[in-house]
Amino acid sequence: MPTTAPTYTIEVVRSRRARRISLRITREGGVRLTIPWWQPKGLALRWAEERREWIEAALVRQRTRMGDSAPMSESEVEVLRGVAKEKLPRMLAAAAERTGLRYRRVTVRKTHSRWGSCTREGNISLSLYLATLPDELIDYVCVHELCHTVHPNHSAEFHALVNHHLGGKEKALAAKLRAYHPGRK
User: Fold this and answer.
1) Residue 10 CB neighbour total at 10 angstroms
2) More confident residue, 96 or 7
3) CATH domain 74-177 topology
4) Which end of the chain is more exposed for a tag (fewer CB within 10 A), N or C?
């Protein structure tokens, strides 16, 4: 069954102070395209169209931050899948580099029950919904799963290692993460 992309309207704002074209998602969930006063509107709209995937993913993230708890539509999930498959492995690799912890491979899946998991073999699976979270929480989940490659449990040693790699912020980040739920927007 075909899916349709999330719809949105772009508000074009001309500015005498703007030196370049910029896109912004407003607090209300709108899309604002600010352009220099001299910029042709058609060119600016084509520029925005080239960034459609970013806009759609940003709108999904905005709804997540605003606490909308309705399930995502299939089109929103597909947009998010593309963003997640590009972003999450990159962030996991950066966390592994920073911590010195190693993993075998990473997969991104549409899981609703958890943000991530790690097998005893060191394979890490991340929920595509993780991409809707702020980067600091994505990093927290990546570090958490990487620490499972050393301690495949939730022992005191495991939590000490996570806390060490997060600069003593494990509990604060875990509390922030509890405000979110995989698969909800």
Assistant:
1) 15
2) 96
3) Zincin-like (3.30.2010)
4) N
Angstrom distance (rounded) from CA 146 to CA 92: 8
Note if the pTM is more than 0.70.
no
H helix count then E strand count, the chain: 6, 6
In 3-state terms, the chain is what percent helix, strand and coil (to 5)?
45, 15, 40
Contacts of 127 (CB under 8 A, 6+ apart): 108, 109, 110, 111, 112, 114, 115, 116, 182, 183
| Cα 70 from Cα 39, distance rounded (Å) | 39
CA distances from 6 to 44, 49, 75 (A): 21, 13, 7
Domain range list for the chain: 10-50, 74-177
Do residues 81 and 56 touch, judged by C-beta distance below 8 A? no
